[in-house]
């Protein structure tokens, strides 16, 4: 089985690569080759199968054709300009997130000769826009309030139509906020959801810019990789024409996140969180969805964590070598 | 006020042109110039203001810029490849319905200098796909089951995002089936909804390919023009970020259509309908939406007919000079 990952240098792409290298297989099939693509050079892992790295801007005409020329059996399309940048640079967001996605889909379409790969597209809960019901179900309509969300919603429509026409076998997965993100704090408005766990566990101070009653939906990086692997290997005959699925997640308030941190790492860790309200972040977060009804994805076999304690434990296992720092 | 119509040679475009010429104004403002565009030469009406006709393929790079160079205050974007052709010719459907729409929106965006026209986009109930609830509300999600529907749904997402970003003031209107369509029978699967009224009123036989309990949603061509005019002149501050609206319609069964024909034109007209079931059309029609809850559009002042009798009467008034043929 040949696999292509677009966006392989990003956090989720790197973790997916690690997992594929470790497993040596996807579902029941042994991996024979892995192509890693990104706009910056992806790291090349030591693997028991052939690995190729490729660097290009896939939104340039002709580039996507090169990526699929090897007729990969599974394509993971994780490449995207993120929310903040797509809002700041209108042209770039549409060029990468819409044109790039369409070039990729069309490149697959024109290969011909019965070529019909599994194509896994990472969408986002940003396809939803306020006002929301208490729990957002799979039939709630898409009214994104950002250009990034609009581009992802358009990607979902293209994915469904190209799949319906038989050009590929597409599955879209709407990722919740991935938490706890490893690495340094970033400037994303959502960064504090990870920061208030990660920094205290690393003995550092964290800033909490919103109130403790803010509710949000989370899944671990490990779950994100599980979602991708399951989407790539599942029986798609049960999905029907609605090809994009809201992934399961743990919906908790910030207060419940902090309670979980206390249970896992004690009062000393919690004491490193400093509450410093930021009106700009409070306003942005108010427009975000809080809670999803993901029963369709669950009935199709997608699983996330069942508690925020578990999400913290996974961070400690996967990023801190299983050692709780005190 | 300067007005541009794309798709001016189509049935709705011609009726909109007639109405603007007759009124001489749109809302409270006098029309000073009307630009009529289509891929075939639109008819040039005698009008009390300047009229220009333009013929080009607006999906060719650079063409849309020419159309908006005169900075029209209102743009009616009615141009589209229809459902059947968009399904038969994948590339052409995406080129006109998606690329063409985006070129137009981008052409408006780059004019600059504070230019921010009202842009009315005709979407379609084809953005919805089965299975449906009994009445499809404004919050029902978009899962089109045709490429045409996917392209219209993408147009709605672009309209909302470009409006949110302040590039224009967009209103999308989802038209129900327009009935009674004037002219000759066509081969559209929906053609019989008009044919079983129009042909009997013109002394001709009509074929009914489905059972009389099939339910569908209709509005007259006159209502379609009213929707467009209202969308172009309404106060958009009340719409909010969800810029596309399902238009009001009359939901009736085919049997109720026939009962209305009997009331308006007698048994003799009804006797001209011949029931000849067509399994292909029956199957297509089963996937179509039947009934809408259009309360949001109604609360914003959009009005359709209140009965199918009224729809027939409008056909007789507008197309047959008010004379019921016997």
TrEMBL record, chains A, B:
Residues 3-208 form the NAD-dependent epimerase/dehydratase domain. It comes from the Bacteria. CDD domains: Gne_like_SDR_e. Keywords: Carbohydrate metabolism, NADP. The keyword Nucleotide-binding does not apply. InterPro entries: DenD (IPR050005), Epimerase_deHydtase (IPR001509), NAD(P)-bd_dom_sf (IPR036291). The keyword NADP applies. Pfam families: Epimerase. SUPFAM superfamilies: NAD(P)-binding Rossmann-fold domains (SSF51735). NCBIfam families: ErythonDh. This is SDR family oxidoreductase.
């Amino acid at each position: 089985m040949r696999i292509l990952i677009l966006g392989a240098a990003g956090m989720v792409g790197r973790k997916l690569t690690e997992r594929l290298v470790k497993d040596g297989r996807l579902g029941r099939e042994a991996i024979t080759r892995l192509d890693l693509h990104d706009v910056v050079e992806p790291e090349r892992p030591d693997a028991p199968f052939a690995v190729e790295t490729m660097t290009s801007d896939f939104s340039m005409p002709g580039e996507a054709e090169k990526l699929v020329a090897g007729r990969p059996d599974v394509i993971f399309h994780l490449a995207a300009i993120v929310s903040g940048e797509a809002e700041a640079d209108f042209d770039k967001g549409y060029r990468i997130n819409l044109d790039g996605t369409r070039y990729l889909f069309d490149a697959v379409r024109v290969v011909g000769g019965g070529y019909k790969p599994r194509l896994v597209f990472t969408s986002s809960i940003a396809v939803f826009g306020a006002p929301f019901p208490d729990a957002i179900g799979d039939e709630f309509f898409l009214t994104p309030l950002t250009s990034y969300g609009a581009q992802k919603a358009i990607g979902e429509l293209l994915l469904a139509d190209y799949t319906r026409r038989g050009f590929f076998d597409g599955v879209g997965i709407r990722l919740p906020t991935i938490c706890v993100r490893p690495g340094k704090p970033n400037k994303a408005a959502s960064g504090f959801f990870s920061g208030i766990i990660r920094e205290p566990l690393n003995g550092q101070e964290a800033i909490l810019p919103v109130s403790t009653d803010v509710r949000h939906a989370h899944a671990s990086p490990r779950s994100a990789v599980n979602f991708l692997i399951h989407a790539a290997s599942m029986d798609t005959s049960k999905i029907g024409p609605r090809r994009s699925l809201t992934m399961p997640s743990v919906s908790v308030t910030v207060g419940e996140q902090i309670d979980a941190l206390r249970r896992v790492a004690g009062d000393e860790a919690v004491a490193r969180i400093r509450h410093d309200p930021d009106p700009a972040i409070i306003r942005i977060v108010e427009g975000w969805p809080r809670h999803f009804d993901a029963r369709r994805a669950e009935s199709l076999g997608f699983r996330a964590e069942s508690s925020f304690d578990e999400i913290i434990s996974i961070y400690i296992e996967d990023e801190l070598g299983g050692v709780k720092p005190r």
